[in-house]
């Protein structure tokens, strides 16, 4: 529910009744006065309460949550969605049983959901925020795997004295590889190719 209509003896009372039901603060809503209160004749005849419509404001967080909830409902998945809002970004953790279908091969489905969530959450927003989604800690596990792969292939490039070419990766995963190896003085890394087939080359220094 993103809006309610409430009555009260005063406008403030009607608004407060609505805020309690929606469980939000006054800063989070838009208030429309539908009817002004009327004390009537002698405070008895023709008394009319105040009537207001209270609508929850659209935010990046609320739109992201609405988008993800729709996907989960369509897929009939029982999940818990945790949102952490920061100055320039929103971190979203999704937890629940059997969520491999949301991750996909090498996180491709997860990346697609994150991309669409960014489009949906920032639609018509004056201040945009980056949406980052993780499922059951997958991104941390994937990062650890990529770092181990980077160290192993860097050693391989040095031992064999020739370049090692990695499989195509998205920009986020390529950044993990580059960052993991940037402190080494025996190899260097660069990327080549066009998206989505852009790949990293680990080259030994001569």
What's the rounded overall pLDDT mean? 89
CATH class value of the largest domain: Alpha Beta
Strand order of the largest sheet: 1-3-2
> Structural class, judged by helices and strands?
alpha+beta
* Gyration radius, in Å: 26 Å
SSE pattern: EHEEHEEHHEHEHEE
* Largest sheet data: 3 strands, antiparallel
User: How much helical structure, as a percent, in the residues?
Assistant: 25-40%
Task: Describe the 3D structure.
It is a single chain. This protein has 206 residues and is an alpha+beta fold. The protein has six helices and nine strands, in the order E-H-E-E-H-E-E-H-H-E-H-E-H-E-E. It has helices at 11-22, 60-74, 100-103, 108-121, 138-160, 171-181; strands at 3-8, 29-35, 50-56, 80-85, 89-95, 130-135, 164-165, 187-192, 199-204. Strand 8 and strand 9 form a beta hairpin. 18% of the residues are buried. The model has no long low-confidence stretch (mean pLDDT 89).
Write the layout of secondary structure elements.
Elements: E1 3-8, H1 11-22, E2 29-35, E3 50-56, H2 60-74, E4 80-85, E5 89-95, H3 100-103, H4 108-121, E6 130-135, H5 138-160, E7 164-165, H6 171-181, E8 187-192, E9 199-204
Parallel strand pairs: 5-6
Antiparallel strand pairs: 1-3, 2-3, 4-5, 7-9, 8-9
Helix pairs in contact: 2-4, 5-6
């Amino acid at each position: 529910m993103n809006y309610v209509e409430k009555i009260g003896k005063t406008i403030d009372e009607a608004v407060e009744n609505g805020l309690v039901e929606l469980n939000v603060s006054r800063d989070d809503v838009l208030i429309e006065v539908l009817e002004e209160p009327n004390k009537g004749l002698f405070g008895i005849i023709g008394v009319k309460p105040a009537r207001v419509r209270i609508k929850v404001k659209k935010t990046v967080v609320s739109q992201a949550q609405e988008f993800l909830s729709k996907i989960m409902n369509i897929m009939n998945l029982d999940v818990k969605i945790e949102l952490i809002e920061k100055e320039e970004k929103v971190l979203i953790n999704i937890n629940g049983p059997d969520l491999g279908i949301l991750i996909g091969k090498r996180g491709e489905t997860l990346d697609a959901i994150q991309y669409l969530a960014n489009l949906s959450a920032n639609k018509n927003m004056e201040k945009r925020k980056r949406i980052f989604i993780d499922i059951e800690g997958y991104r941390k596990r994937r990062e650890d795997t990529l770092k181990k792969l980077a160290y192993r292939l860097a050693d391989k490039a040095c031992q064999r004295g020739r370049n090692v070419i990695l499989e195509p990766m998205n920009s986020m995963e390529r950044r993990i590889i580059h960052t993991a190896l940037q402190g080494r003085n025996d190899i260097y890394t660069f990327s080549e190719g066009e998206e989505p087939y852009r790949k990293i080359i680990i080259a030994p220094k001569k």
